[in-house]
Amino acid sequence: MTTITTRTVPYPADSLTMVGHLALPAGAGRRPAVLVGPEGVGLSDVERRRAEALAELGYVALAFDLHGGRSLQDPDDMLARCLPLLADPERLRGIGHAALDVLRTEPRADLDRTAAVGYGTGGAVALELGRDGVDLRAIATVNALTTGRPGETARIRCPVWAGVGSADPIVPPAQRDAFTAEMEAAGVDWRLVVYGGALHAFHHPPVGHTVRPGVGHHPRHAQRAWRDVVALLAECLPVTE
After folding, report:
1. Residue 164, SS3?
2. Measured between alpha carbons, how far is 78 from 210 in angstroms, rounded to an integer?
3. What would you measure as the largest C-alpha separation in the chain, in angstroms?
4. Which terms does the record give in the GO molecular function aspect (predicted)?
């Protein structure tokens, strides 16, 4: 296994002190950079491990925070925080730009080769960065088929990959259709993968706290979605020595 290094990075965003997890690949040269955004519950060891897995593949990876170091395990607390965020693109963009600022201070991050990968609310942040015209090489989302304000999706300059479970009641077929219609109308290079029988947050390992109805882990599709994300990065953001 490739030797990587990690560190905790505090930074300001959304009037909070966020606590990100930065993972650096072996070596000393500059490498492509990837933002990793968590589900609405907030940054957990799941996203930290994903950032570390990307560092093992040669990427500078930052798993960014949503809630100022908190994990919102109570579904009502999570919704009370996330629903206003999801209704306010400027706040989502502010969270994303603050995470990008962390990468800008990291000498090993190649800011000309940056991607955003996000799950749930973290995926909405990734999409809003694209709609804000940020120069990304790729955007990948799971459970985040959010739609944007008219005309702004045309600012997305990179391929967009999206994954969703076919049995996800939180992201129903009508939302899928609205998302794909928006991408198509804007001329975005987009892909949508629907994973048969999967619920919301199917990518996330089982947790020991109460979850919303319609949430559930699907081990096979979780592995497939991760492979799809890695393949997108390899296509759009290859690691070269």
Report:
1. strand
2. 11
3. 47
4. hydrolase activity
CB contact burial 109-119 (16+ within 10 A = b; e otherwise):
bbeebbbbbbb
Q: In what order do the strands lie in the sheet with 16-24?
A: 5-13, 16-24, 60-63, 31-37, 109-119, 138-142, 160-165, 190-195
C-alpha span between 189 and 72 (Å, rounded): 34
Residue 45: give the domain boundaries.
Answer: 5-237
CA atoms within 13 A on the CB side of 205: 7
**Domain of residue 15, CATH code:** 3.40.50.1820
> 197: which 2 tokens?
């029988």
Give the predicted TM-score (pTM) of the model.
0.96
155 Cβ contact partners less than 8 Å away, ≥ 6 residues apart: 130, 131, 132, 133
How far is residue 49 from each of residues 16, 45, 131, measured CA to CA in Å?
23, 6, 28
Reduced to 3 states (helix: H, G, I; strand: E, B; else coil), residue 104 is helix
- DSSP class of residue 44 equals -
Location of structure tokens 């500078």: 60
Give pLDDT tens digits for 193-239: 999 999 999 999 987 776 778 899 999 999 999 999 999 999 999 99
Domain count, the chain: 1
Nearest by Cα to 33 from 125, 135, 120, 119: 135
What DSSP assignment string belongs to 193-240? EEETT--BTTTSPP-SS---TTB---HHHHHHHHHHHHHHHHHHS---
